[in-house]
Task: structure prediction
Amino acid sequence: MGKVTGFKEFERKDESYTSVQERVGHYKEFTVPLSEAEITKQGSRCMDCGIPFCHSGCPLGNLIPDFNHMVHQGEWQKASWILHSTNNFPEFTGRLCPAPCEKACVLGIIEEPISIENIEKNIVERAFAEGWIKPQPPKTRTGKTVAVVGSGPAGLAAAQQLNRAGHTVTVFERDNAIGGLLRYGIPNFKMEKGIIDRRVAILEAEGIIFKVNTNVGVNY
Result:
């Protein structure tokens, strides 16, 4: 995976931040993305581990060496497919996850680990920019209906999987907008709310029904 000698040739490099003078003027994200060439180098640092412990370090079981290799090869669309095969919303985890995968990285035993979380974010943002992430409505419906109470990340992921299985899914949210903790617990400088809206639009296009201001058991 990656480049055989990549971890020897390239050091870990993370996103930088905009100046303090600039970031105090707004509440938006203030990271400065790495260039495509630099992200490719970071992907090449992934070693051909006998046992890639990053798999078990990731709660989702992401196929990390596989998408790192695709990034190294410049196969960004394949990297996106691999990433989405285990992760419904990498644009969320790529910004908010504490990255236990990096703590489990074998390279991290002797050097700085692979910048997995940043690579993940770059893959999904590239996929959105290129138009590769599109609604995937089911071809047929089962005739069964499912209610998902709460529109946090777990509720949204459950809704997407159930909908793609063909069930008619309605998500109930007691607040006035979809997102749960993502919207009301995460500040904009960590993740701007347009990131949530972008994904919700895709879920709606897939056929998921959302009902806000609906407190199940109280006013519904």
